[in-house]
Amino acid sequence: MVNIAVIGCGYWGPNLIRNFSSTPGAHLAAVCDLNADRLRKVSEQNPGLHTTADYAALLASGKVDAVAIATPVSSHFPLAKQALEAGKHVLVEKPMTATVAEAEELVALAAKKGLVLMVDHTFAYTSAVRKIKELVDTGELGQLLYYDSVRINLGLFQHDVNVLWDLAVHDLAIMDFALGQQPVAVSATGLAHLQGQHEDVAFLTCFFESSLIAHFHLNWLSPLKVRRTIIGGEKKSVVYDDIEPSEKLKIYDRGASVNEQSLESMRRTLVDYRMGDMWAPHLGQGEALRAESTHFVECITQKKTPVTDGRAGLRVVRILEAANESLKLRGAPVKIKAGA
């Protein structure tokens, strides 16, 4: 059994507690939080579970093999670093860290210690996103042309990060997992409409070495909740609507191609539109977080590299850090540092 402690039981922590308390091969050993009321509630819901506000003592106890960190972004790095230095495997909420330098240090430390460092890119464990990856990997979509995403809703406002780090991180994690390509530059614009708060509306564009382009629309002020992504390829396109209860994925055999009637004049170039069928593939059931928690335990016990390992988290943080820089430059393109 892998003895796991959940660190932080605010918004996301309870979901980790629920899953690790019933994941095969895992034993929920403890829950740690600085808020006494939260710990009291956890104790009431889980009689006999060890709860504490002393993180250092928890790491030194020797009764914990791994920690799952679900705290504010600013605390991810120090908490994860302490855990790795104490010889504990780490699952950390997204984004992995607040800076690229911090992410690089965690990746290097985990490798040095021979420990699992995994990032909670939950969408990579959904059947819908795994199906998208399959469509990309098998070439069914053809050469990828664009990735267009809208992720908007009213709240929840975050006090330590802007809307990019809160909402775009989900789509960037999906893109990193499913497409197998990393952007080389980004351009971001956005504004803070509430005094003293971070940017609540933002638009992010990612540029690639190929003809692929990705665009993300993020908004904390929208009266509607939208979670829709369109991935267009030369052959087919896929629409992913995470709010749709039954048919989250729809594949369209529709697109456009250039038909050059004569090489003598581009004025005679025609655009052919392909209007084929649409179908919704069957998707497996099951909670993504349960699949993720099971994978975390397997990576520890079987010495596997996680699907969403520290390097995946680092790649996403690289994009977010470059996007922040572009925000300050009012949308001027910023190159992304090369690396895994």
Structural write-up:
The protein has 340 residues and is of the alpha/beta class. The protein has two domains: 2-123 and 288-308, NAD(P)-binding Rossmann-like Domain (Rossmann fold); 126-283 and 318-335, Dihydrodipicolinate Reductase, domain 2 (2-Layer Sandwich), CATH 3.30.360.10. Helix content is 33%, strand content 31%. It contains nine helices and 15 strands. It has helices at residues 13-20, 36-45, 55-60, 73-85, 100-113, 127-137, 163-179, 288-301, 310-328; strands spanning 2-7, 26-32, 50-52, 66-69, 89-93, 117-120, 144-154, 185-191, 201-207, 213-219, 221-233, 237-241, 249-260, 269-279, 334-335. It has a nine-stranded mixed sheet with strand order 14-13-12-11-7-10-9-8-15. Strands 3-2-1-4-5-6 form a six-stranded parallel sheet, with helices on both faces. Strand 5 (89-93), helix 5 and strand 6 form a beta-alpha-beta unit. The longest helix is centred in the last third of the chain and has 19 residues, at 310-328. 42% of the residues are buried. The model has no long low-confidence stretch (mean pLDDT 93).
